[in-house]
Specification:
The chain is built from one helix and no strands. By secondary structure, the chain is mainly α. It starts with a helix and ends with a helix. Keywords: Isomerase.
Length: 55
């Protein structure tokens, strides 16, 4: 392979990696918010169970 032929796939790979990173960054806040919601829900359920246990 000549250097020019070697550079093109590397550039393609770089653009693919960049697009994947962008997609992950876009999806991360959603995933984090969902995880946080589940954590909050679980904590509330635990608190409710504790309260029922006290009653």
């Amino acid at each position: 392979m000549t250097p020019i032929n070697a550079v093109i796939p590397m550039m393609r790979a770089a653009t693919v990696i960049k697009s994947i990173k962008k997609a992950i960054i876009c999806k991360l806040p959603l995933c984090l918010s969902v995880c946080l919601l589940y954590e909050i829900k679980n904590k509330k359920e635990r608190n409710v169970r504790k309260n029922f246990g006290l009653l």
